[in-house]
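Go through this pair.

…
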Amino acid sequence: MKPSKNVQTFLGFDNEYEDSEIIVFGSPFDGTTSFRPGTRFAPSIMRNESYGLETYSPYLDKDLEDVSVFDAGDLDFPFGNPKKVLDHIKSFTKDIVEDKKIPVMIGGEHLVTLPAVEAVYEKYKDLHILHFDAHADVREDYMGEKFSHATVMRRIWDFLGNKKIYQFGIRSGEKEEFEWGRDHTYLTKFNCEGLAEVVKQIGQSPVYVTIDLDILDPSIFPGTGTIEPGGISFKEMMDVIKTIEPLNIVGADVVELSPHYDSSGVSTAVACKIIRELVLAISNK
């Protein structure tokens, strides 16, 4: 069963499902957030605020009016059952991939990335992950829980294996996470240096991109659950997206906006612009 058209779509994401190469959907879940919850409200608020943007990107010289994107709306989740939430995300993503389309998910907390990657990996066994974040997210467990926003990259490593995950901007985590990352992932601290070389190294292998918005400095993006000073600038984020544009991106997500922690609306506007740029970078492959 194909998803029906969402009544309120993200700016420019109003094409028909059958005609679209990219399918955007929201995963409004923050059930394992360890500090400040609120990411469940991000997808719906971003749709409304996206109309403050233009469809044209001067960064990439592309226009949403020239690409076909379908907004499937937010998934409906049961309260109090994280396993069902993850299963639902995986099933929905799998349907998109099987229809030969590219899933782009709006979170939600970072754990929602796990089932989306699982679904994409079932089709693309040589999958690589580009992970942009303030946090390493490679703990074996968080307070005894193996499935958490703080363990999401470790759970992905469980099936992806060594040296398939490239992490950038990491500036927070336990000492053991950084030590573990040296042996099992490509972990770049504080910034995105070396990204261009990684893009060349990956070539046309399939890539899943996950952007945790707290990679941005809180002076630019205060609307998130766990603020970490020392992040990258918005211009650097735009440079990241332009750098990864040539890749064979087969899935992506943007997570961890908690809109109510920034009453100015700036964080939401930043998140919307990153979604626009990421979708345009993926389009017309």
